[in-house]
Write a structure and sequence with these properties.
With about 160 residues, this protein is an alpha+beta fold. It is built from 7 helices and 6 strands. Helix content is about 30%, strand content about 25%. The N and C termini lie far apart (about 65 Å).
Length: about 160
């Protein structure tokens, strides 16, 4: 396995003073499980050469608020949780990446696939039934105001 890694480990990393790295979607999902989708293990286990997966590339530079770019990669090889693929998008911000460039990535970098995912239905539940609030609402302790909103006559309000 070490030789396989060595053969394909040509990714640039910010730690090496290069302009981009891949985001870890497992960490993002753990931080925000109700708002950040990651493909299920059942879906990632199906992935094979020829499939398209979406990865998140990001950089430390702050170009007008820009931090990352999601792009499709076509898988060309797989060894368990490790993949090789070719970039299938023309990067808009990350000019150091090129269409067709060979990349090495792991399952933890995949944020989307072409496959249907039964776990995606969970995200619909979260979006349809839960409320997301920003930190400033929590800091101002305004989340208790929902009781007043609940009793409000919304039909009358919306018909005006």
């Amino acid at each position: 396995m070490k030789n396989w890694f060595k053969k394909y480990s040509n990714n640039k990393r910010i730690e090496d003073n290069t302009p981009w790295q891949l985001d870890n979607v497992y960490k993002r999902n753990k931080e925000s499980p109700y708002t950040f989708y990651k493909p299920s293990k059942a879906v990632t286990d199906k992935l094979k050469a020829g499939d398209l997966v979406k990865l998140i590339f990001f950089s430390d530079s702050d170009q007008a608020g820009y931090k990352g770019e999601r792009m499709w990669v076509e898988i060309t090889d797989r060894n368990k949780e490790n993949f090789v693929g070719n970039l299938d998008n023309e990067p808009y911000h990350l000019k150091s990446l090129k269409l067709g460039q060979t990349l090495h990535f792991d399952t933890e970098h995949i944020c989307d696939t072409e496959y249907e995912d039964d776990d995606a239905a969970k995200m619909d539940y979260y979006f349809d039934t839960l409320v997301t609030v920003s930190n400033d609402v929590l800091e101002r302790n305004e989340f208790g105001q929902f009781d007043k909103i609940h009793d409000y006559d919304w039909e009358t309000y919306l018909s005006e």
